Amino acid sequence: MAASEEKIQMNVLSSASIGNAPASAAATPPATLIYDDWYVAMRSDRLRTGQTATTMLLGIPLLLGRTRDRKLFAMRDSCPHRGIPLSFGTFDTSANSSAVTCKYHGWKFDPVSGQCKEIPSLTPEDTLDCARIYATAFPCVERDGYAWVYVPAPGSGRVRSEEEATLPAVPELPKFGPRFRSAHLAADLPCNVDHGIIGLMDPAHGPFVHQSWWWRSGASIHVKQKQFEPIPQGFRMTAHAPSANSAPYKLLGVYGQPIMTTIDFVLPNRRYETIRCGEKWFSSLTTVTPVTATACRIDVYSAWNIFYNIPFVTSIAKSFGRKFVEQDRQTMVEQAQGLQFNPALMLIDDADRPAKWYFALKQARLQMASTGSFEHPLAGPVTLHWRS
Predict the structure, then answer these.
(1) What pTM value is reported for the model?
(2) Per-residue pLDDT tens for 110-140?
């Protein structure tokens, strides 16, 4: 084998090997989902006192709302009695406590704990204690303008209120000062979460998918070298000068300070990016959330104090951000047309090494439940090279 061929280490995958189910003509095969963690359900400004909203999260239909005391709640949108969606019923905050009432038989539930408060059909002769019945409720916390929901593994039972203090910390975007502007974006992706995530961390698609005058061109492609290191449940692209062929980074040169970028990926689905330029900073948290086993959603939340006093800076940033995310979304739509036929796939060399790490990290996380230990795929710092 020639030397150039020896350097090409191919990890050939089929779409089915990424998930556990055979391919279908309608969508990519489903990915194995990671439970026992926090996921973004929706923007919290959609939830007002006395109102509810529905969504899907990890294939679970959810009913979300805000109680009388403005606490967020998330319930499985299903009555434990006969399975009718609770969203067809009512949500009452006029009494001393909030209650979700099923449309079918009038069963009432506390929305935060899921505990049944009343079964109208019971008579004094009945011995059933309705307080021992629970609709499925999930821990739900508001952070950075999102409703984050903790989803335990199927069959593990409900998370009791006294157990919530032992849950992992709710994710939050790092911020480096009290004065900042912020923006958020979202897009639905017609693929499973694995394809969404490896697309998120792919360093080589930029000059092709994001080719534009305000970002970079195909002619700007060049060799890059970056250092990576292991962090708990993920890996970090260590602090480095940002890409010289990206126009937005060049704008930061007006501050006359060194510009450094750090990028973290953390299981199950989070990419943190921080850019520092003296006292000026930009940070973003991007998540790829499994809506179902075969579809996902990308959410981007950013905060910054750069160009803070420039008029319309937030509108300008969101406009370019939407175009950037739409370029990724459209590419995933087009990729889905090929993935529906379950083709063999390959991950090659250093440009795809982060994707390989993701699959290894995910496998270690899934095995942790049975082994009790987490075997990190990175033993120490690594230097990767690619062209983009």
Answers:
(1) 0.87
(2) 999 999 999 999 999 999 999 999 999 999 9
**pLDDT tens column, 162-219:** 899 999 999 999 999 999 999 999 999 999 999 999 988 888 777 787 766 545 555 6
CA 304 → CA 186, 252, 298, 314, 370, distances in Å?
Answer: 18, 12, 20, 10, 42
Strand order in the sheet with 181-189: 181-189, 295-304, 280-292, 270-277, 259-266, 234-240, 223-231, 382-387
For tokens 């300070």, the residue is: 257
Tell me the backbone φ, ψ of residue 73, rounded to 5 degrees.
-140, 155
Q: What is the DSSP letter of 10?
A: E
Whole-number Å distance between alpha carbons of 230 and 236: 6
- Residue 14: the pLDDT is 37
Determine the 3-state secondary structure of 351 from DSSP: helix
Q: How many helices (H) and strands (E) does the chain have?
A: 7, 21
3 state DSSP class of 291:
strand
What burial class does residue 67 get, using C-beta atoms within 10 Å of its C-beta: 0-12 exposed, 13-18 middle, 19+ buried?
buried
Domains and CATH numbers, the chain: 37-166 (2.102.10.10), 181-387 (3.90.380.10)
What sections of the chain are H helices per DSSP? 3-7, 15-18, 193-200, 206-209, 247-251, 313-339, 353-371
Three-class DSSP category at 327: helix
250: phi then psi, degrees, rounded to nearest 5: -65, -30
What length does the chain have? 388
- Report, as an integer, the average pLDDT of 333-342: 84
> How would you class 203 by CB atoms within 10 Å of its CB: exposed for 0-12, middle for 13-18, buried for 19 or more?
buried
Give the tokens for residue 148. Answer: 């984050």
Q: Spell out the residues 6+ positions from residue 234 whose beta carbon is closer than 8 angstroms to its own.
A: 264, 265, 266, 267, 270, 361
